[in-house]
Design a protein that fits this description.
This protein has nine helices and twelve strands. With 266 residues, the chain is an alpha/beta fold.
């Protein structure tokens, strides 16, 4: 979660979304940066409790999609919409989307010396809930989650990602996802830079959070099948050239592992 989201307060539309709306609906999304179009008409639907994987080669637009879904100002949406529970959030800034229940786990989490994890979570949690959280409440909940995730209790007093290994940074993203209780989590190449043991630890953490919050929707952006062997997606989507060119079940990930992306890149 971007530290800029901590403590933010942005007014959002109070209109009730249409009943029966999917958790996330991406409709004909075009977006780019510095005049270069990267996403060229992405359509995607994620319902409560589902885990979707977005796979594709380097340069296909995967990380751009993750960033655009959370409203990164580095990208411009030129057409299409992003809907959360039927509410159009396309024009909302990242902090407003976070307050509505969207979460992004970064591929390269920022290091912020001098800011304890517990303090960061207190500020970000207050923004998410729309009210103050006591130091005691945050510490108790954080201790409970660290225990559930098999992490040392002292982790919460370390400074945010400062001096962390790659695996510790990714586990810290899972802690944030647990504590902030989003409705939709976008995991941008969470498996990047992890060895097999680290990957399994992070995947178990994601599953622990999902078991505690069964309605949580998750979109995993990844190059490789290996994290999907641990997380078992409901659907797999192939993103090539800024478009989703094929969707299917877990067997599609196995096919990509075996054959690569050549058939869509000709």
């Amino acid at each position: 979660m971007d530290p800029a989201l901590a403590g933010a307060s942005v007014a959002v539309d109070d209109a009730s979304p249409p009943s029966g709306s999917p958790l996330l609906a991406v409709e004909g999304l075009h977006a780019g940066a510095e005049g270069v179009e990267i996403l060229r008409g992405v359509d995607l639907v994620v319902r409560e409790g589902e885990l979707h994987a977005v796979m594709g080669p380097n340069g296909s637009g995967k990380s751009t999609l993750a960033s655009v879904l959370l409203g990164s100002p580095a990208y411009e949406v030129t057409s299409g919409r992003v809907l959360l529970r039927g509410e159009d959030v396309t024009s909302l800034p990242p902090d407003a989307r976070a307050r509505l229940g969207m979460f992004l786990a970064f591929q390269y989490p920022e290091e912020i010396p001098g800011v304890p994890i517990s303090q960061f979570l207190r500020q970000a949690g207050a923004s998410r809930r729309g009210g103050d959280l006591s130091v005691l409440e945050v510490r108790v909940r954080l201790r409970e989650w660290l225990d559930r995730l098999g992490m040392d209790a002292s982790f919460g007093e370390r400074h945010l990602n400062d001096g962390f290994s790659g695996g510790e940074k990714k586990r810290n993203e899972v802690v944030q996802m647990a504590m902030l209780e989003p409705d939709l989590a976008i995991l941008d190449e969470t498996d990047s830079g992890l060895d097999i043991d680290g990957l399994r630890t992070v995947a178990r953490g994601v599953e622990t959070v999902r078991s505690a919050r069964p309605a949580l929707g998750v979109v995993v952006v990844t190059h490789y099948r290996r994290i999907l062997d641990e997380l078992a997606p409901d659907q797999v989507h192939v993103l090539v050239g800024g478009r989703i060119v094929e969707s299917g079940g877990p067997e599609l990930a196995a096919r990509l592992e075996r054959d690569g992306y050549d058939e869509w890149q000709r």
